[in-house]
Structure formats: structure tokens, C-alpha cells
Amino acid sequence: MWNDQSVAGGGFFNSTNQFANAAATPNQGQKSGRRSSRTAPIVIKQALHSGDEGVKIWGTEVQIVSIVARVRNIRIQSTKITYTIQDITGRMKAVLWLDQEAMDEDDKSAPKVQVNDYVQIFGNVKTNKGKKVLMAFKIMPVEDVNLITFHYLQCIHNKLKMEADSKKEKPVETSTFVSNVPANSLMGMDNGSVNGLNPRQMMVYNLIRASTLEQGISKQDIYSTLKDKMPSVEFENILEWMCNEGHIYSTIDEEHFRATDAF
């Protein structure tokens, strides 16, 4: 299905050190997200060929992607790490913002990954200076070589499933119209539930999503706008819930946030 000379010449499956203690089953961390329309496994070629609006599979917009690839280069900077990753379909950059506080304390912020290791990366695809970049918020070393094959099978299965779903007739009724409208067209509405967010959560989410800064918006700036509308405890709970649900992620530290489908 994917034709790439690196399979034959690059030795994609020639590295054994990383998988010396591999178990017999794929890494359980591969479990995909809570909503198939928001999280999906893809290959790098799909990311490189995505449009300005992000990755779409048969018309379904994917906000969070999972990629299994091999690390070809690592560039460490004070606030971020840039990885060059490659799978059998192509090569691209992946950027991970570092938690500066955690690095200063125990250096646990950066993943324990070396060049030529296989990794599984969760993030979203952005366009930077005309090139596609994977903005990562979770990188895990692949501990079982079977996960590589398993990931490609998941990509194929997910693509076929989305194709079948796209061909099904979807009746539109007045009472269900809002739930069928793309989330991006409702981001300015605070009086409804979008992608599982209630109006209170939407107030927080809209502020985070509207930020155009690369590092996102700080928790202090968010709450200074909302302090008259909700108590700090509720605000903290909403932030934690949206992080766990994959709606937002932290960037340079635990006090700055970006939305997974930010502008």
C-alpha cells in the first residue's frame, strides 16, 4: 500500500536493541482516543498531504493524531525538542514543548528517546512556514516491535471504517441539527454543548482556542477574564478535565495551554 525505498535501504526493522525485552503483545498505550472523529492513527504521508484546516479522513476532521515512526534526528533547545521522524511513507518534524519547571527539578520532562528509536507520538498537525509539523504533547518509546505493524493495521482499518461511515446516509432533522454541524462553526457559541463541552467549559475553551501565541495562553490570563463568572476551584477542575479529555494541552509549562484544534 505504501511504497518507500527507506524500507529496503534504511533498515526499518533492523534495530533490535530497543526491543530486546519486548512483550508478546502491542504496547497498551496504543489505545486510541475517546471520540473516533477527534482522534485517529495515521501515517506521515497523511499528515504531509493534509490541508490548512488539518487532517481529514473521508471528510471527518481529526484533531489528535497518533503516529508510530523512527527518530532520525533530535535537536534539543531550552524550551522545546525538535525530532525528525520517519515511517515507511515519509519524513517530517515533530516539536515537543518542554515543561521548564520539571526539567529544572528532575529532568523528567524530556522523553528518554534516542536517534533510531521507534516512538509513538500523539499530537496535532500544524503548518509552519509552509511545512507540516507535528505539534506533539505525548511521546512514548515503542517497547514492542509488534506495535509498528499493529499501528499500520489500525491506520488501514480506521480509513476503511471512515470511508464506510461517510457513505452512509445521515438524515438531518431540526432537533439534531446542532450536533451535526462542525465544531469550528460553533466556537463562538456559549449556549450549547459542543464536542461534549457544556457552556461553562466552552467559556474556558474559547479563550484558550482564540490565543494566537505559539506557547498558548497562561492560566493566569484565562482566569483573570473569567474570575467574575466562576470560582477558582471550578476553573481548575475544568482545565484538568479538558486536558484529560484531549481538548487542550500544556506547552512550555503547566501554566500555559493551547487547544488541540487552535487556529
From TrEMBL:
Replication protein A C-terminal domain residues: 169-255
Main location: nucleus
CC terms in the record's Gene Ontology section: chromosome, telomeric region; DNA replication factor A complex; site of double-strand break
Residue intervals of the OB domain: 65-141
Cell compartment(s), UniProt: Nucleus
Protein keywords: DNA replication, DNA-binding, Nucleus
GO annotation terms (biological process): DNA replication; double-strand break repair via homologous recombination; nucleotide-excision repair
Alphabetical list of CDD domains matching this protein: RPA2_DBD_D
Matches recorded under InterPro entries: NA-bd_OB-fold, NA-bd_OB_tRNA, RFA2-like, Rfa2/RPA32, RPA_C, WH-like_DNA-bd_sf, WH_DNA-bd_sf
SUPFAM superfamilies (alphabetical): Nucleic acid-binding proteins, Winged helix' DNA-binding domain
GO molecular function: single-stranded DNA binding
Family indicated by similarity: Belongs to the replication factor A protein 2 family.
Descriptive protein name: Replication protein A 32 kDa subunit
